Amino acid sequence: MKKFLPKVGLICNKEVYDNYIEQNDLEKLKQICKFQWKEFNEISSWEESPHSSEEIINILKNFTENLNAVIVCHGSPKISKEIIESSKNLTFIGELEGDRFSRRINSEYAIEKKINVIDTSHGSSYPVSEWALGLILIGLRSGGYHFRKIIDKKHWDPNNEKEDLIFQNEELTGKKIGLIGFGYIAKKLCEYLEPFKTKISVYDPYISKNILKKLNYSQVELNDIFLNNDVIVCLAPLTQKTKNMINKKHFDLLRDGAVFINVSRGKIVNSKDLINALKSKKITACLDVFEPEPIPVNSEIRNLHNVFLSPHIAGTTKRSRTRFFEEMVNELYRHFSGEKTLHNITLSTIKNRRGY
Hints:
five-stranded parallel beta sheet; Rossmann fold; 2 domains; seven-stranded parallel beta sheet; 35% helix
C-alpha cells in the first residue's frame, strides 16, 4: 500500500525562492510531501492585496486544485474565496512574510472552511528585537550625538561636555522600559533585557493581564508609558487605530533624558510632533522607521543632534528570510502529523490587526 504524501505548493517570485529557501529546509519538507514551486510576479504591499487578472487567476486555479497545502509570499496572487472553492483538497494555507496581516489570503473564508491558516512573518522578530536592544544602548549613550561630532570633525572632549548634560552617557542596567505593543518582537526583546534588571511596563490593549502578571510586568495606559519610563520602545503594528497614535501630548510627558525608540512603523508616530519635541525637549530618539520613507533628504530629522537614524534595516537579515521558510516547514510537519500548529491566523488575530 502506497504511503500518502500530501502535495505542497509554494507560490512566490524568483527572488523569494532564491533568498528565502535553504536547501536543507527544502529537503526536509520533501521527506513528508510532494513539493512544487510556481513562479508568479504579482504586485502587493503590506497594506493592499494583489489584484490579478482573470488569466492569472485561472493559472493559479490549475496549480492549486490538487494541492493539500499552499505557501504564499511576495509575487503570489491572492488566495481568494474563488481559489479556495476550486481547491477542494486544501487543509493548510501559509504566508511566509505578510506582516501578520496576510494580505495574500482570504483568511476569514479559509478559517470558515476549516483550513489551517498560518503566518510565519515573526521570523524577523529576532533581528528586530536585537536592533531594538542596540538602539536602546545607542540612545542611552547619545551615540548619534557623539558620532555626529566625530564625522563633522568637531573638537570632542568626552570629559568636558558640561554644556550638553543631555548627552552624557547613561547605563541600561536598572532603567525603566516602556513597551508599546507586546507581540513576538517585544517578548524576544524582554529576553534580551533580562540581564540588565530593567523594570518593564507595557501598553497593549489586546494582551491578557494574566500573561503580564506572570512575567511581573506592569500593564499601563499609553500616557503612563511616556510619563514614567526612561526608555520607550514602539513595537505596535500599524492599524487604523494605531496610525498617528503617538503625538504631541505623549512627547510632552517625556522626562529630561528620556529615549524614544521606534522599530515598528513610521506612520504610528506623528512625525511633525516628534521633530518639534526633539527640538524643544532634552530627549533622544533612535529611529529605524519614519514617515515618510525613505526620509526626505531635506527633512529636519536628519540634522538634529539628538537623533540616531537607520534606514528600516531592523528586520533585513539573511537569516530572518530563511527563518520564515524554516518555521513554515516545521508548521507543515505539525499539521500533517496531527499536532497543534503554533502560528495560526485566527478571527481574533484578524480583528486585532485591523484595529477593530
